[in-house]
């Protein structure tokens, strides 16, 4: 197995990707256009609504729509122009998501954890942050690169050590890719979405300190979690400390928003 051959294969994979800069200034590699991801997101959302139970509670649906409508105007123009759509799913698991194309879903169980409009804005702002930062595109790109890279390495190992060598490299390499490449990167995305979402909620007039309270609620309702290095999310206490550190500066942003008349009034 020649090191230069592996390096060349990886270089070709990287060269095939477009480079971009995330909203926080981080370099990104992307394989798909926004239009492609928007179509994927819309299709996935349609499938989810067909397979899962969608809540018919008018109050819950209006509540989510109100928060989304308050947040979206503070995104750049290309994101404001998406066809934003919301749905509440009947599911006790406290969870929410946003898909490319402007599709936002909230489980009914989230209302037991997000105690007020500001905490719900922290959840939805975080999820919208994933869309704004093109995290789905980035994640798909990296997974594709990892899979292709493992196939190349496996082929090279097989040419020298036979099928058993190829299998060993592919299976072992898959675990390394999962633990050393994909999961740590997901934590970077989660941390970035926290930062974007907390600023977004402040710009919309929501209280950024409630993002801290939300995660305290999440910890209180969690029965336990995996170690941080095996998780796709940052450690909750680390996450709370980062959110707390941003609160003083963002309170000033929130105050300016309210002085400008941006005072959200969303209720369930």
TrEMBL record:
Signal peptide interval: 1-20
Cofactor: Zn(2+)
InterPro entries (UniProt xref): Mito/Outer_Membr_Metalloprot, Peptidase_M48
Textual note on the cofactor: Binds 1 zinc ion per subunit.
Stored Pfam families: Peptidase_M48 (PF01435)
GO CC term (a single one): membrane
Superkingdom per UniProt: Bacteria
Annotated Peptidase M48 domain residues: 60-246
MF terms in GO: metal ion binding; metalloendopeptidase activity
PROSITE patterns with a match to the protein in the record: PROKAR_LIPOPROTEIN
BP-aspect Gene Ontology terms: proteolysis involved in protein catabolic process
Entry keywords, A to Z: Hydrolase, Metal-binding, Metalloprotease, Protease, Signal, Zinc
PANTHER family assigned: M48 FAMILY METALLOPEPTIDASE, METALLOENDOPEPTIDASE OMA1
Family statement drawn from the similarity comment of this UniProt entry: Belongs to the peptidase M48 family.
Protein name as catalogued: Peptidase
Natural source organism: Pseudoxanthomonas taiwanensis
Organism lineage string: Bacteria, Pseudomonadati, Pseudomonadota, Gammaproteobacteria, Lysobacterales
């Amino acid at each position: 197995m020649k090191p230069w051959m592996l390096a060349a294969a990886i270089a070709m994979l990287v060269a095939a990707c477009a480079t971009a800069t995330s909203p926080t200034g981080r370099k990104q590699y992307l394989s798909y256009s926004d239009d492609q991801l928007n179509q994927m997101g819309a299709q996935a959302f349609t499938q989810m609504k067909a397979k899962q139970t969608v809540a018919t509670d008018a109050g819950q649906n209006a509540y989510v729509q109100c928060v989304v409508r308050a947040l979206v105007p503070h995104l750049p123009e290309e994101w404001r122009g998406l066809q934003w759509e919301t749905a509440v799913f009947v599911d006790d698991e406290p969870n929410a998501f946003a898909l490319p194309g402007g599709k936002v879903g909230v489980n009914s169980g989230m209302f037991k954890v997000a105690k007020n409009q500001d905490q719900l804005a922290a959840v939805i702002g975080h999820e919208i942050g994933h869309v704004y930062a093109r995290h789905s595109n980035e994640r798909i790109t990296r997974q594709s690169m990892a899979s292709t890279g493992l196939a190349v390495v496996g082929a090279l190992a097989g040419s020298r050590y036979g099928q058993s060598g190829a299998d060993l490299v592919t299976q072992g390499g898959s675990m390394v890719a999962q633990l050393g490449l994909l999961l740590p990167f997901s934590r970077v995305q989660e941390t970035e979405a926290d930062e974007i979402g907390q600023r977004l909620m402040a710009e919309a007039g929501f209280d950024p300190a409630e993002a801290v309270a939300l995660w305290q609620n999440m910890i209180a309702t969690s029965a336990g979690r995996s170690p941080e290095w095996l998780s796709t999310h940052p450690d909750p206490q680390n996450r709370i400390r980062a959110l707390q550190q941003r609160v003083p500066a963002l309170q000033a942003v929130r105050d300016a928003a309210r002085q400008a008349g941006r005072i959200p009034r969303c209720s369930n």
